[in-house]
Amino acid sequence: MGIVFGEPCGFDAKRWIDETNAIEFAVGFSPAMKNNRMTLHLDYLWHKPDAFHTREKFALHYGIGVSYAARKDATAKQGVRFIGGIMWYPIHKVPFEFYAEIAPIVVTYQHFGMSLDAGAGFRYYFSTND
After folding, report:
1. Contact 23/14 with Cβ under 8 angstroms?
2. Strand, coil or helix: what is 62?
3. Could you tell me the CA-to-CA distances from 41 to 32, 44, 55, 114 in Å, in that order?
């Protein structure tokens, strides 16, 4: 579970499927859109934990997902997200991470076009193994 700041702002959760794959869900609001009521996205992520050869623990991630933004005027923006980002685990063996990501969105319903999500946040993992 965690918090993301940026576009959009809100709460997110990430569930690891295995060592390199995860599903991420977020709910929040868009500070840039005055007509925005709520945003949701669901992403499938792949991770490259060995992308950097440093003493610190960094990982790249990328993925694809879906996005939904409800508006106060009863319209909505729905689209496909393409995610790319980086994660940093500041303390080894502690289930805590900082991350930053950018996600271009191809809007496919009601408001055709392009959009962009970008944010940074942190997550705490309550369980690291099942």
Report:
1. yes
2. strand
3. 17, 10, 33, 16
Q: Identify which of 6, 9, 14 has the alpha carbon closest to the alpha carbon of residue 124.
A: 14
CA-closest candidate to residue 117, choices 102, 106, 99: 102
What pairs with residue 123 in β-bridges?
Answer: 2, 97
Asked if 98 and 90 count as a contact pair (C-beta separation under 8 A), the reply is: yes
Q: Which residues contact 94 (CB under 8 A, 6 or more apart)?
A: none
Strand partners, 41: 26, 67
Kindly report, residue by residue over 52-92, the tens digit of the pLDDT: 777 778 899 999 999 998 877 777 889 999 999 999 987 76
Nearest-Å Rg of the Cα atoms of the chain is 15
Helix (H, G, I), strand (E, B) or coil at 20: coil
| DSSP H or E run through 45 | strand 36-48
- Its pTM stands at 0.85
Closest CA to 10 of 127, 129, 117: 117
